[in-house]
Amino acid sequence: MIMRDFLYFMARIGIAVPLALLAWIIPLSFFNVNGWVALGIGIAGGVIPYYVIKWFQHRSILKSYGLSSQEYEYIQQNLTESQKKISRLQGKIFQVRSLSAMRQLNDLVKLSRRIFTIVKKDPKRFYTAERFFFYHLDSGVELTEKYTMLAAQPIKNKEVLTSLEDTRKTLFELNSSIEEELMNVLSNDIDNLKIELDYAKQSMDREQHSRKGISEWNKTGSQ
């Protein structure tokens, strides 16, 4: 996606800059237009094509995703918020003293980043992972902040220790739920891979049968 955005940007610049120069030079050279006026025409001659091309590129992106402009903006806003939440989660990992809890938080961050990255590349998958974005991620942030707050308390009585253990168990369950969400997001890819594998297997079987038939025919012919 970053490479695509860069290439789109370079395409806009590659078209807008020459047009801006032409729009500046032609009035200045052939129509005796005032220098400042010609400069203004040149700037307009570059800026307008730049944003027109950008609009068409944006429409092309939306068409490839199968989303409306409103849907795309809605998803991008949620991704921006989710990225902040994941960063908050990541910042809490080294505030945890328990190795088991640290591993759980690390797994939570990795799973969350994986879903985020997939949806970032293919925004339409956001609807498959809505429960993650609107429930699981918020729960993860809330539980993590609660755990780090309790773990930082100087007094560790039975009640605090019980709360810490309960939070660890809940984090474990949450990770399992997010793993299921990840599998849901990847379900189409898995199904497509199975179809491709089945097709490849059938092709290999047909090729083996064909070779076997040719081999038997050659043996019969030699006799």
Q: Would you list the SSEs in sequence order as H and E?
A: HHHHHHH
Shape: flat
What percentage of the residues does DSSP assign to strands (E)?
under 5%
> Domains counted in the coordinates: how many?
2
Query: Number of helical runs?
Result: 7
Strand count, sense and barrel status of the largest sheet are: none
- Any low-confidence stretches, pLDDT <50, length ≥5? none
Provide the residue-averaged pLDDT.
84
Account of the 3D structure:
The chain is mostly helical and 223 residues long. The chain folds into 2 domains: 1-65, no CATH class; 78-207, no CATH class. It has 7 helices and no strands. The radius of gyration is 29 Å and the shape is flat. The mean pLDDT is 84.
Helix-strand blueprint:
Blueprint: H1 2-30, H2 35-65, H3 69-92, H4 99-121, H5 130-151, H6 158-185, H7 187-222
Helix pairs in contact: 1-2, 3-4, 3-5, 4-6, 5-6
Can you tag this structure with a few keywords?
0% strand, 223 residues, membrane, 7 helices, 2 domains, flat, mainly alpha
Quick summary:
This is Protein xpaC. InterPro entries: ChloroindolylP_hydrolase. The protein is mainly alpha-helical and 223 residues long.
